[in-house]
Amino acid sequence: MAKDRSETDLDRELADLPPELRWREWMRRIEAVLFASASPVPRDDLARVVGQGASVDLLVEDLAADLDGRAFEIAQVAGGWIFRTRAIYAPAIRAAADVEDQLLDLSEFDVAVLAAIAYHQPVTRDGLKDIFGKEIGRDLIGRLHARDLIGTGPRAPRRGAPYTFVTTEQFLVAFGLESLRDLPDREQLMDAGVAGEAPHIDYG
User: Fold this and answer.
1) Are 119 and 182 spatial neighbours (Cβ–Cβ below 8 Å)?
2) Which burial class, exposed, middle or buried, applies to 196 when counting CB atoms under 10 A from its CB (0-12, 13-18, 19+)?
3) Quick one: which H or E segment has residue 113?
4) Which of the residues 37, 57, 69, 147 has the least number of beta carbons within 10 Å of its own beta carbon?
5) Whole-model pTM?
6) pLDDT digits (tens, 9 = 90+) for 164-201
7) How far apart are CA 147 and CA 169, in angstroms?
């Protein structure tokens, strides 16, 4: 969200309201911001609409409790909060709404390559070749790029300075992760056949 917008027309403190109504209004402001945002909203941005010293975490916690039993929930992903539909309603959405799961048209191997990038980033195509034992096509990389699941990282410090690939904020959002620290244990993915044992990649 923009950081330089004017806040002069927003009464953040709401000193004329009794404490209970003030807290409720702050909750509704956070709800409105999350509802209007297509990407996760960080704590600092939410703090711009509530009183100085008010706990954004507690306000979000109370709002989440207030939404209990509703079809959507607040998720903490990619360093912020976002509204998302509860998983139980995914079949209903796919059946009736004009939405498309961006991962539906990715093959199992596409997802495996995405997992390898997530765990070994920044990684080059040659690095991915070392991991999978075969060339990774530019079309596959293009599919992941097109869905904004990966982006271009720093050039590798080697002959030709090839590009590396890294995951994006959209990757975290798509998989419901707050950060890369929340990735499943690599051994769990190996047991599931999603990720293989990878050699050390030397960029030197």
Assistant:
1) no
2) middle
3) helix 108-120
4) 69
5) 0.56
6) 899 888 888 877 787 788 787 766 555 544 444 443 33
7) 11
